[in-house]
Design goal:
Blueprint: H1 9-12, H2 53-58, H3 61-86, H4 100-109, E1 115-117, H5 123-128, H6 133-141, H7 150-153, H8 164-178, E2 193-197, H9 205-217, E3 221-225, E4 230-231, E5 234-235, H10 252-260, E6 283-284, E7 301-303, E8 317-318, E9 323-325
Parallel strand pairs: 1-2, 2-3
Antiparallel strand pairs: 4-5, 6-8, 7-9
Helix pairs in contact: 3-4, 8-9, 9-10
Length: 326
């Protein structure tokens, strides 16, 4: 069977969907490592998972056929759109090939009131949120600006700027939090937000800012990185020293954001502690910094004979107690 052919639903999912179980293959750290979640091997054999087996066993044959149908339709649509772009009918098309399961799985896990902020290739999530695929074709052909109502679908318009949607998602989640739609125990009200991005976006400042704000505010947002070890044409090792998803040791804010934003529905936001007053800023000196940028001293002050400490940025700073009015 070729890559473009799809097995019939009856062949893929018979009466009993509990297929043979294979041992989980060992993979090196750069390919997922021991924390990689895999339920099916490339040969289609069931891979056991102590944490998720009970959930899989509860899925009916009808539900599994529905997931498979979504995967088939999304891939077929993506292949057709790619062909149209190659023929010049579309100005651009960002393929989702290889990401169908990630998008359909996360899209089907969302509740109606949840809100998704996509990049420009979340066609599978768009399908799960009820967006007509024709609208996607029209957008990439340049005849519409999206064609769907984000407030109706709870699916934001595509974002072309790399990583910008993470800020939008964090801001929306902070609004949901302030509206009191988090941790109420009401499944029809409790709301979560999800932001999709790829490996390359992790090098963008917008993503770092979104993680910081989400972590500080304990916002109900999930950061969903669909990583394939590449950022367009650059491998990950050329843009980061740590694997995607692993918070750098030097950045405590990223580590707190990665852990604080994973729970959203059942845990209300804790009250924020009082913030101590900021210390008085030291007056700058007139000595040049190591970078060559000269800091000028206010004309109404003069330097004292007291010792001058060196600040963290490398330039000198005079404490307020060491200055006097001229």
């Amino acid at each position: 069977m070729s890559d473009n052919e799809v097995a019939p639903l009856e062949t893929a999912f018979g009466v009993d969907h509990h297929v043979s179980v294979a041992e989980a293959p060992e993979r090196p750290a750069h390919e997922g490592g021991p924390e990689m979640v895999q339920l099916l091997s490339p040969e289609g054999e069931r891979v056991p998972n102590a944490e998720l087996d009970a959930i899989v066993d509860d899925l009916s044959d009808e539900a599994l056929r529905g997931f498979y149908r979504d995967l088939v339709l999304v891939r077929r649509f993506d292949a057709e759109a790619t062909a149209l772009q190659r023929q010049g009918e579309l100005g651009l098309w960002a393929s989702l090939l290889g990401q169908e399961a990630a998008q359909v799985g996360s899209g089907r896990a969302m509740r109606r009131q949840d809100y998704a902020f996509p990049t420009y290739r979340e066609h599978g999530v768009a399908w799960c949120r009820g967006v007509d695929p024709v609208n996607l074709l029209g957008m990439f052909r340049g005849v519409n600006h999206g064609g769907w109502d984000p407030n109706e679908k709870n699916f934001h318009l595509y974002t072309i700027i790399i990583g910008a949607q993470t800020l939008h998602a964090t801001g929306y989640a902070m609004g949901v939090q302030r509206d009191g739609d988090v941790g109420t125990g009401d499944e029809r009200r409790d709301t979560a937000v999800i932001a999709y991005f790829g490996d390359g976006a992790t090098s963008q400042g917008d993503v770092s800012e979104a993680l910081v704000f989400a972590g500080v505010n304990n916002s109900p947002v999930v950061f969903f990185c669909q990583n394939n070890q590449w950022a367009i044409s650059e491998p990950n090792e050329k843009q980061t020293r740590a694997p995607c998803g692993t918070a750098p040791a030097a950045s405590a804010s990223r580590a707190s954001a990665s852990t604080a934003t994973t729970s959203s529905r059942s845990t209300p936001s804790p009250s924020r502690p009082s913030t101590p007053p900021a210390p008085a800023r030291a007056r700058p000196s007139s000595r040049p910094s190591p970078t060559g940028w000269v800091r000028t001293r206010p004309p109404t002050t003069r330097r004292s004979t007291a010792s001058v400490p060196r600040s963290r940025c490398g330039s000198t700073a005079t404490p307020s107690s060491a200055t006097s009015a001229g």
